[in-house]
């Protein structure tokens, strides 16, 4: 059961072959049997999940129409608020913080009668690319327990890959959905900035953060996106645009569709085996009638530098509220209020979080602001313009999601710069604010390889169209880890 | 050496919007601690600010009334600092793009009308309030997120009096436009002053100090006066003025150092990434413009030209919106502008002052004041009685006609009745009669006074005068 996709499960429920309670119990069993090894969950709400499942079974029994997501178990990254559950951001700082309100996406999921199993592990405050920065436990890759699942939404990716939830939500600031999706062999979508409300997502870098779904395949992705997208008056950066029925992009052909291949993404730094897999994927799309064009995105080489300045600057301010005064971790002994701040924050935050707060504070400081923050904003505009220009000539841009397959736990944890490089293909997308999806597109040594499709602003539909066409032609999305 | 002072003011005014600047919580003053709050104004993880459009409208109204240009594209900015009453540890304000800029206020000095420039007006949020108790410090977030405008003047003022006049006019304009109720005691109007001195004739600025913690206009005036004197004396002693923030100590009547320039914060301003650019179009601006009421300057000019009031009276009557409204309503009810003005400038304001009340609190209705004036003019009561009636009206808010009837205060105009009183008074005061005969005309005034007293103020004064003279001549 746990290997099935969301749409397959929907069909089983609709046919009456499985009840939501059975399904939920089944998934809870699956979690108890594998999560000791995977470490995807930080919190499980068995009672809440079963109550919801029962409620949906009752609705179905009464013959009521239910939503596509109704009664199907899912889970949420632990930086998205669910009323009454802890929202820890995998940080000692928020270890005991219970959110008194629902994030907008949580509200939408509840309206859709989703069965929320619990909260998922991640890099602390979504800072990291391996999920090793969780203050509580590491997440392991279901394809190889010695390897990382990617990050920061490692728990969200691993949970879907290991069949511990039929779909999950994550957040993506510089690749935190797509990179772990790639490393765990699942589909992960970062929608256009503004497509999904950020209300209730604990902010890391407000101008880059975006919530998105993890699913086993593209078809599931279309269904989940449809449910969680849309304008929210509580988030002024959310877009006042109608939500499309993304499922209409399924089963479409892609003849004549123009796909751009940026040459910069196939240069130095890309693992040769990964390159081969991606090139094979490009051939599949060419065979399906897509027009493959080489393009150039020269500004993207600055994206990583821009990212670490902007994201850290915003983070330094966004994380200022965690001070031990109103909620969260408070140091035991302190002399005065400044001492309380210093000790609570020194003890409550992990190394990577502190590193980025310091970096961002520095970049915003008097005397450095113009050279760093302001300059980075200007380069951001150039990158945005570059993507806008690129989309005049092509419909979709295709790159590897990550330069390598999943690396070993501990391999990069002492070298932040090397760790940062694993987001080299995903970071520019957040800088530009365009949507991108990572789709299983090959294997190297039994480890998944993801292909990233990048779309024009609010053109998630085309990503689904191309992704689904690829998925129908290949078997990669049907592979499950042996755990 | 002769010095001149350079003064600039930064005024924070709380806007009178019903809800907070970035969330839907009420702005109502008071309330049980931490009950006017939500995840947004408490700075909970994941909560996001959304700009209240009313705040923009109110701030633009202030800007337009203060002759400012409106910045059509602005963005909000974060001002980062750690303080327990600041739930996010940053304040969402405006930095490089204030909503309004380049305005002015006119003040009337001895040398004539002077324009005090306004550099900028921006919108921002208020913080919570730290409460220090015996068992520790608590924070109340009811005020957190209440909308403020900060109005920064240009350094155009030269004396403490000019600063006070600027504040008075600013307050009147904010009240006229109903942008703010400007209650200093509730903290809805706060003022900091930047003060420096330089040799008269110099064009360079001296080193300035910033003065905080002034809780009334009077305190602003006193603090600036003190600071100017302090700086001049220091320079005369050969000392250098250092850039610093000083606190006004009301009890001691002096400014004391709060923090030096070195201790100043680096606020690390940057554009608020949780919000989009604020774009204001001409339609919005014109809508706000069309709602602007007649402002104090215009009103004052009209009172002078239309009603023929002296400039001083016109200035006082227009100094607050409520007072001007009281005056205009009294006139509307039939009183002549001169009578209405005399009564308001006299009895009304005097009584309010004595009781430390403001015109907003008065029970007397304009139509009743107008009627009182009519009762005097048609001879029903005397001016002396009118003052008594007014006292009653002030206490009870009653109709003057009712008071006059109930208390039998109608004027006595019957010649025989008055003549009887006059003769009785003369009989009782032979010395006065004697004095009068000896050419001491003053004695007549004394007799008139005694007659008025004997009639309990009800005798028609003209008749009393006439009859006293007649009867004295007879003796």
From TrEMBL, chain A:
Gene Ontology BP term (one): translation
Keyword Transferase listed: yes
Pfam assignment, any one: Amidase
Family statement: Belongs to the amidase family. GatA subfamily.
Name used for this protein in its record: Glutamyl-tRNA(Gln) amidotransferase subunit A
Residues in Amidase domain copies: 22-463
MF terms (GO), sorted A to Z: ATP binding; glutaminyl-tRNA synthase (glutamine-hydrolyzing) activity; transferase activity
CC terms in the record's Gene Ontology section: glutamyl-tRNA(Gln) amidotransferase complex
Summary of subunit composition and partner proteins: Heterotrimer of A, B and C subunits.
Domain of life: Bacteria
Entry's EC annotation: 6.3.5.7
Keywords: ATP-binding, Ligase, Nucleotide-binding, Protein biosynthesis, Transferase
From TrEMBL, chain B:
Domain Asn/Gln amidotransferase: 325-472
Reactions this protein catalyses: L-glutamyl-tRNA(Gln) + L-glutamine + ATP + H2O = L-glutaminyl-tRNA(Gln) + L-glutamate + ADP + phosphate + H(+); L-aspartyl-tRNA(Asn) + L-glutamine + ATP + H2O = L-asparaginyl-tRNA(Asn) + L-glutamate + ADP + phosphate + 2 H(+)
Entry-linked InterPro entries: Asn/Gln-tRNA_amidoTrfase_suB/E, Asn/Gln-tRNA_Trfase_suB/E_cat, Asn/Gln_amidotransferase, Asn/Gln_tRNA_amidoTrase-B-like, GatB, GatB_C_1, GatB_Yqey_C_2, Gln-tRNA_amidoTrfase_suB_CS
Keyword Ubl conjugation: no
Membrane-spanning segments: none
GO MF annotation, one: transferase activity
Enzyme class at the top of the EC tree: ligase
SUPFAM superfamilies: GatB/YqeY motif (SSF89095), Glutamine synthetase/guanido kinase (SSF55931)
Keyword Transferase found: yes
Domain of life: Bacteria
Entry's Gene Ontology BP terms: glutaminyl-tRNAGln biosynthesis via transamidation; translation
Catalytic activity, EC: 6.3.5.-
Family (UniProt): Belongs to the GatB/GatE family. GatB subfamily.
Subunit structure: Heterotrimer of A, B and C subunits.
Function according to Swiss-Prot or TrEMBL: Allows the formation of correctly charged Asn-tRNA(Asn) or Gln-tRNA(Gln) through the transamidation of misacylated Asp-tRNA(Asn) or Glu-tRNA(Gln) in organisms which lack either or both of asparaginyl-tRNA or glutaminyl-tRNA synthetases. The reaction takes place in the presence of glutamine and ATP through an activated phospho-Asp-tRNA(Asn) or phospho-Glu-tRNA(Gln).
Protein name from the UniProt record: Aspartyl/glutamyl-tRNA(Asn/Gln) amidotransferase subunit B
Taxonomic source organism: Caloramator proteoclasticus DSM 10124
The encoding gene: gatB
